[in-house]
Amino acid sequence: MSEETPLVLRKIIHIDMDAFYASVEQRDFPEYRGKPLVVGGKPDSRGVVSTASYEARKFGIRSAMPASKAYQLCPTAIFVYPRFDAYTAASKSIREIFSRYTDLIEPLSLDEAYLDVTEDKLNIGSAIDIAKSIKDAIKNELNLTASAGVSVNKFVAKIASDMNKPDGLTFIGPSKIERFMEKLPVEKFFGVGKVTAAKMKAMQINTGADLKKLTEQQLIAQFGKSGKFYYKVVRGIDERPVRPDRETKSVGAEDTFSADTNETSVMHGLLLQISEIVSKRLEKYQLKGKTLTLKIKFADFKIITRSRSFAIAFNDAKQIYSEAIKLLNEADIGRTEVRLLGITLSRFYEEIAEDKIENNQLEFDF
């Protein structure tokens, strides 16, 4: 480890459920077990794959793939619509198992979370033993499997949990982290998306070892503030704590048209439905948002977003719908056919400075 490594090392576990939605379906419906299963839209719809069972993945089916493409790859697959109530209930039970060992739990989604077990409730001491115990409890009590990554920080633990799926347990200790990082492809690094990965590869930066050759100043010059994080994490340093109070950043919903459309009335109808869904979700979590974002995906898969922020937070369906319509009109999409629309409310806890407000609203175009 580098001399910059903090003296106090945490014990971090990242738990990632295996094909979570599909596994819940196969648990609840025996007739699905051992068969290729796709959770998402029907093959004759415009839906996408939410999760595919491991039997389906053997055919090349992956999350976010159009359901029609999944059907082409495996016509014998079983296609089912998601049952979010069932997944939420299972997630709650998983969280209860986590809480037996620590209160430092940072959920990332229904099916994954970070746990800080530096000091565990049961005084087990070994993070590896705790991870094993959690995996066993999930399997025995819920009839589901999880993969776990164990290390001294969040970044490495998350990468480790993906190394031996399904039902895996991988430990990467302090003495092995830097060598592990050097071999890691740059697209696996936290915060490196497709655009950044392409930029790195154009600079002949393909692995952590290549990334490590650049100074912190060079990385900041090329990648902004993220460059400072890349400099540290490639040396095994990730100081981000597990945040049990991690707040919800946004609530939204989106839907795909059965056929691409440029009919204003059809778009308005879908936005009304989405507005009602978003409003109900906000009310469920007792949230109100100050920033509304409209997402538009066109027939050629190009995506644009339009946002507006307000002085007073809201969650009323009528206001959500009204503001979404205004943003749609201002997007000036003309006669271009639209494939998908989505609405998101955010900025639940952040106050907008008064000197930035003009006529009670701000406009942000992306």
Automatic annotation (TrEMBL):
Reported cofactor(s): Mg(2+)
InterPro entries per record: DNA/RNA_pol_sf (IPR043502), DNA_pol_Y-fam_lit_finger_sf (IPR036775), DNA_pol_Y-fam_little_finger (IPR017961), DNA_polymerase-Y (IPR050116), DNApol_IV (IPR022880), IMS_HHH_1 (IPR053848), Rev_trsase/Diguanyl_cyclase (IPR043128), UmuC (IPR001126)
EC assignment: 2.7.7.7
The protein's name in its UniProt record: DNA polymerase IV
Binding site for Mg(2+): D16, D111
Keywords annotated in UniProt: Cytoplasm, DNA damage, DNA repair, DNA replication, DNA-binding, DNA-directed DNA polymerase, Magnesium, Metal-binding, Mutator protein, Nucleotidyltransferase, Transferase
Subunit structure: Monomer.
Site (Substrate discrimination): Y21
HAMAP family, per database record: DNApol_IV (MF_01113)
UniProt-annotated catalytic positions: E112
Catalysed conversion reaction: DNA(n) + a 2'-deoxyribonucleoside 5'-triphosphate = DNA(n+1) + diphosphate
Entries under PANTHER family matching the protein: DNA POLYMERASE KAPPA, DNA REPAIR POLYMERASE UMUC / TRANSFERASE FAMILY MEMBER
Coiled coil: none
GO function terms (MF aspect): DNA-directed DNA polymerase activity
Localization, UniProt: Cytoplasm
Protein purpose: Poorly processive, error-prone DNA polymerase involved in untargeted mutagenesis. Copies undamaged DNA at stalled replication forks, which arise in vivo from mismatched or misaligned primer ends. These misaligned primers can be extended by PolIV. Exhibits no 3'-5' exonuclease (proofreading) activity. May be involved in translesional synthesis, in conjunction with the beta clamp from PolIII.
Main EC class the enzyme belongs to: transferase
Signal sequence range: none
Domain UmuC: start-end pairs: 12-193
Cofactor mode of binding and number, as noted: Binds 2 magnesium ions per subunit.
Chief localization: cytoplasm
Species of origin: Pedobacter punctiformis
UniProt key word Iron-sulfur: no
Tagged with keyword Hydrolase: no
